[in-house]
Design goal:
Distance between the termini: 105 Å
Structural class: mainly alpha
Number of strands: 0
Mean pLDDT: 82
Shape: flat
Strand content: under 5%
Number of helices: 4
Largest sheet: none
């Protein structure tokens, strides 16, 4: 056997001995206990985060509280509270409409002001572009007339 083969054989023997030791030691170790995952790994920080995690439970709790309060409140008070709630909702809707109309008017004014400023800022550029366009047009006409003259001379 050559020296390289002897070295390879020693390495194989060491690996086999190490694997045997690992197998004997792992048989002596107890099995790893399996744990069931917990349903909630952390407590909720606030009622808001609890409601975000369980939206259906939140809806069910709201319905239950509504039923409980409806059973506790006398029948005559419900009619008065309902009328007051409708009046308040109507007032809130009218206020919302008025505020939205004001916001629309302000946005329109701001848009018109912005367009006016843009028009003032770009006026010199537009004038320069118009002059350049007319100059290019006149140069093109002049070149075309020269080309027509040259073509007419070549035909003769």
């Amino acid at each position: 056997m050559s020296e390289a083969e002897q070295r390879s054989e020693r390495i194989r023997q060491r690996i086999a001995a190490s694997q045997g030791r690992l197998a004997r030691e792992s048989e002596d170790l107890p099995a790893i206990p399996r744990r069931e995952p917990l349903p909630d790994a952390y407590p909720p920080d606030s009622y808001r985060s609890l409601a975000a995690e369980y939206p259906l439970l939140t809806v069910a709790a709201g319905v239950g509280m509504g039923l409980l309060l409806g059973a506790l409140v006398p029948k005559g008070a419900g009619g008065k509270a309902g009328r007051r709630a409708i009046v308040l909702a109507t007032a809130a809707a009218e206020l919302g409409l008025a505020l939205s109309k004001q916001a629309t008017d302000r946005a329109g004014d701001a848009g018109r002001d912005g367009l006016a400023k843009l028009d003032q800022g770009t006026a010199p550029l537009r004038q320069h572009a118009a002059r350049a366009g007319s100059s290019a047009r006149s140069q093109g006409v002049r070149l075309a007339s020269e080309a027509i003259k040259l073509a007419a001379q070549l035909r003769k």
